[in-house]
Amino acid sequence: MLGDKHSMVLISLNNLARLFMEERKYKQAEMLLRESLAGWEETAPDKMSRPTEAQYWRWKRYHTQSLLGASLTGQMNYGEAEALLLSGYEGLLRERNAPNPRVSSDDVEQAAVCVVRLYQEWGKPEQAAAWTLKLQEIKPSVTPKNP
Q1: What is the pLDDT of residues 81-135, one digit of tens each?
Q2: CB of 60 within 8 A of CB of 39?
Q3: Are 119 and 125 within 8 A, CB to CB?
Q4: 61 Cβ contact partners less than 8 Å away, ≥ 6 residues apart
Q5: Where are the domains of the chain?
Q6: Cα-based distances in Å from 49 to 52, 54, 63, 87, 130
Q7: What pLDDT, in 10s, does the model give residues 27-70?
Q8: What is the pTM of this model?
């Protein structure tokens, strides 16, 4: 009824995908997140000339990239996961530092935790250590051993 690109539909896809991820059903989560990301990319593009409703929702696009990267990490598709996780983190950080941010520090922190997990699981301890330091800059009380 709302249409497949409506923000409430895309948020619902993300929420369902998160449930699949909690159950370690990463492939099912991936399918929903790819659909959601396509919708966010269309309705909340990266570059905009003036503030609009799309700008309000743009942070969700980056959050979805991060979730998709995490689902791919769970499937050991590390190369594709890395690109999505890094892009999602950078987008969330940019949105967090923008005037009138819609992104919380927790969203940025969670995106960084997903990057640490990627590098730990991928067997790249130097990158994991560097991202753990970056995570501590975001929230000093967090020291992920196994995020």
Answers
A1: 999 999 999 999 988 887 777 788 889 999 999 999 999 999 999 999 999 999 8
A2: no
A3: yes
A4: 37, 40, 41, 44, 46, 91
A5: 7-138
A6: 9, 11, 22, 21, 35
A7: 999 999 999 999 988 886 665 445 555 566 788 999 999 999 99
A8: 0.86
- pLDDT at position 83: 98
| Residue scoring higher pLDDT (8 or 70) | 70
108-130 as b/e, with b when 16 or more CB fall inside 10 Å? bbbbbbbbbbbbbebeeeebbee
* Number of Cβ atoms within 10 Å of the Cβ of 135: 22
Domain 7-138 top-level CATH class: mainly alpha
Q: Select the more confidently predicted residue: 145 or 67.
A: 67
Interatomic CA distance for residues 95 and 100, integer angstroms: 9
Assign 75 to helix, strand or coil. Answer: coil
Q: What angle do CA 123, 139, 109 make, to 5 degrees?
A: 60
Token digits for 77?
A: 């598709």
Single-letter code of the amino acid located at 119: Y
